[in-house]
Amino acid sequence: MAQMPVRVSVPKSPVQAYRHNAQQVKEWKQACISGADQISQRTERENKQVKQERKRIQALEKELRRKDRALAEAAALLVLSKKLDAFYKKLIGQPKNYRIN
After folding, report:
1. What is the pTM of this model?
2. Cβ distance 4 to 27 under 8 Å?
3. What is the DSSP letter of 97?
């Protein structure tokens, strides 16, 4: 943001003081208007950037949920396969007269 140069002058009469103050008010007004325009342009860019970041975050969260479900499914399958192996080992280790109904 560009800084407006500050001019300091000492008025010699009340009329000069009034004109000086009126000129100073115009300069301040112009500085405020141009600054507000720059701020509004910056906020528009920032809003667009925030919106893009929000979409990216949502996409990453969606991918994370998908991968989390896949990992949970893989863990469940691993646990079930180990239980099945343990069951068959126990079944094979039983006496031959063991019957499965």
Report:
1. 0.46
2. yes
3. T
**Tokens describing residue 28:** 């301040």
Query: What angle (nearest 5°) sits at the alpha carbon of residue 57, between those of residues 54 and 62?
Result: 125
- Report pLDDT digits (tens) over 65-90: 999 999 999 999 999 999 988 888 88
Q: Where are the domains of the chain?
A: 12-101
Structure tokens at 88: 């068959």
Gyration radius of the chain over CA positions: 38
Instruction: Name, in order, each residue with C-beta under 8 angstroms of 9's C-beta and a sequence gap of 6 or more.
Output: 20
Look up tokens 């994370």; give the residue. Answer: 64
What is the per-residue pLDDT for 34? 73
